[in-house]
């Protein structure tokens, strides 16, 4: 999994819009994220279409339900050819273990399976909102670290977090436990609904294993130029 490429969040409303977008990159292999908006509009085949167009796919459906249901969902998703799949750590260790079982069942003994990464605290969640709405009294980083430890105990490949928490997670888990970080904004870019944001170059210094970038690329006047600028900063 080549995470020297920023993962582009393809938050667009149709398969056609997704295909039109990746065609702008003329032969360059991208790492794209198919999230709820695109997956629910275009169906599972959009993942296959992206694979056939030569791109790696992060399937971001943030599974969060009882273990049996998540196991079935993961089984259904296992053969699409995605490299990464998200679940919510808040669903618990048994739920994350069930996701891994479902993937194994769906892929068969030899089949390639996506790596599972667990959402910790969404990057749109501020420390104040976490305290007020989730009634979590410890500092936000403690909550994220707790989810990371539970995710590691479940056997998943890593977590999704803000770059602000990446170094502490690396220390609390291991170097190879993935820290995928959305909430990326180039200097001066509109933050929008994100709460915990970091620039691409700072994310690299802060021990992120991979960055996820949506609007700063997808809604840029020149998405190819924006992508290459962010990629250069991330790899600097
Ligand atoms: O799982 C994710 O990718 C995710 C987790 C998280 O905590 N925060 C977060 O922003 N994301 C996703 O990352 C992308 C960020 O998009 P932009 O804010 O447009 O860069 C969106 O597709 C979100 O769904």
Main attributes?
alpha/beta; 8-stranded parallel beta barrel; 8 strands; globular; OMPdeCOase_dom; Orotidine 5'-phosphate decarboxylase; OMPdecase_AS
**Major beta sheet, specifics?**
8 strands, parallel, barrel
* CATH superfamily grouping: Aldolase class I
Spatial sequence of strands, sheet with the most strands: 1-2-3-4-5-6-7-8
Number of domains: 1
CATH architecture type:
Alpha-Beta Barrel
| Cα Rg | 17 Å
Structural class computed from helices and strand pairing: alpha/beta
Shape: globular
What CATH first level would be assigned?
A: Alpha Beta
User: How many β-strands, per DSSP?
Assistant: 8
Mean pLDDT: 97
Low-confidence stretches: none
Give the count of helical stretches. Answer: 11
Order of helices and strands: EHEHHEHEHEHHEHEHEHH
List cofactors, ions and other ligands: orotidine-5'-monophosphate
CATH topology group: TIM Barrel
In helices, the fraction of residues equals: 40-55%
Keywords: Decarboxylase, Lyase, Pyrimidine biosynthesis
GO biological process, one term: 'de novo' pyrimidine nucleobase biosynthetic process
InterPro entries: Aldolase_TIM (IPR013785), OMPdecase (IPR014732), OMPdecase_AS (IPR018089), OMPdecase_bac (IPR047596), OMPdeCOase_dom (IPR001754), RibuloseP-bd_barrel (IPR011060)
GO molecular function: orotidine-5'-phosphate decarboxylase activity
What does this protein structure show overall?
The protein has 236 residues and is α/β, with parallel strands linked by helices. It has one domain: Aldolase class I (TIM Barrel). The protein is built from 11 helices and 8 strands. Helix 9 links the parallel strand 7 and strand 8 (210-213). The mean pLDDT is 97. It binds orotidine-5'-monophosphate. Orotidine-5'-monophosphate binds next to strand 8 and helix 10.
């Amino acid at each position: 999994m080549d995470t020297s490429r920023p993962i582009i969040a393809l938050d667009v409303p149709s398969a056609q819009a997704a295909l039109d977008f990746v065609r702008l990159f003329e032969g360059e292999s991208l790492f794209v994220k198919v999230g709820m908006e695109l997956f629910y509009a275009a169906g599972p085949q959009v993942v296959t279409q992206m694979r056939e167009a030569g791109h790696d796919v992060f399937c971001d459906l943030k599974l969060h339900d009882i273990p049996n249901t998540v196991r079935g969902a993961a089984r259904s998703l296992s053969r699409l050819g995605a490299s990464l799949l998200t679940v919510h750590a808040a669903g618990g260790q048994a739920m994350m273990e069930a996701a891994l079982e479902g993937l194994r069942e769906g892929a068969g003994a030899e089949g390639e399976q996506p790596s599972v990464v667990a959402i910790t605290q969404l990057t749109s969640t501020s420390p104040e909102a976490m305290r007020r709405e989730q009634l979590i009294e410890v500092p936000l980083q403690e909550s994220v670290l707790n989810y990371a430890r539970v995710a590691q105990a479940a056997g998943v490949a890593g977590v999704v977090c803000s770059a602000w928490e990446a170094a502490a997670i690396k220390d609390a888990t291991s170097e190879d436990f993935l820290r995928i970080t959305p909430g990326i904004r180039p200097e001066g870019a509109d933050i929008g609904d994100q709460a915990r944001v970091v620039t691409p170059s700072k994310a690299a210094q802060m021990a992120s294993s991979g960055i996820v970038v949506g609007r700063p690329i997808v809604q840029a006047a020149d998405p190819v130029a924006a992508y290459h600028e962010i990629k250069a900063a991330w790899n600097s």
